[in-house]
Amino acid sequence: MPRPTHFEINAKDLAKVTAFYRSVFDWKIEKWDGPMDYWLVGTGEDSSRGIDGAIFNSEGLFMGTVNTVEVPNLEAYIARVQANGGQPIGDIQAIPGIGRFTYCKDVEGNLFGLMENEPGAQS
């Protein structure tokens, strides 16, 4: 059964927002070594319950927090989203060394992400 594995917090001022979460929760936040300004958030030990995430500027795509669900086959789950009244938003994106990703909206317009692990993914 697919589960949420990642969250994203949208921020216009990345320095201000990363400092906030570091100070409030003692989260480990480090810049991702990838093709965009994306700050990875570690919320605890791998042995404890919970998920990790990221902080970045969505450049107007969304406000707030988005949860990403890991799926075994991205295209199959996009089809399931559409068959149940939801819709994909934008194109499938390759995240180098991680996998393939897309945003979707549910039947009430709530945004969520779908991620298929594919370590060989290239942008």
| CA-based shape | globular
Query: Per DSSP, what share of the residues sits in E-state strands of 2 or more residues?
Result: 35-45%
Structural class: alpha+beta
Which bin fits the share of residues in helices?
Answer: 10-25%
Order of strands, main sheet, comes to: 2-3-4-1-5-8-7-6
Biggest sheet overview: 8 strands, mixed
Total strands: the figure is 8
Distance between the termini: 28 Å
Radius of gyration: 15 Å
Low-confidence stretches: none
Mean pLDDT: 92
- Assembly category: single chain
Order of helices and strands: EHEEEEHEEE
Written overview of the protein:
This protein has two helices and eight strands. It is 18% helix and 41% strand. The two termini are 28 Å apart. The chain is globular and about 45 Å long. Strand 7 and strand 8 form a beta hairpin. With 123 residues, the chain is an alpha+beta fold. It has an eight-stranded mixed beta sheet, covered by helices on one side.
Short description:
By secondary structure, the chain is of the alpha+beta class. The chain has helices at 14-25, 74-83, and strands at residues 4-10, 28-31, 38-42, 52-56, 65-70, 87-95, 99-105, 111-117.
Which helices and strands, and how do they pair?
Blueprint (H helix, E strand, L loop, with lengths): L3 E7 L3 H12 L2 E4 L6 E5 L9 E5 L8 E6 L3 H10 L3 E9 L3 E7 L5 E7 L6
Parallel strand pairs: 1-4, 5-8
Antiparallel strand pairs: 1-5, 2-3, 3-4, 6-7, 7-8
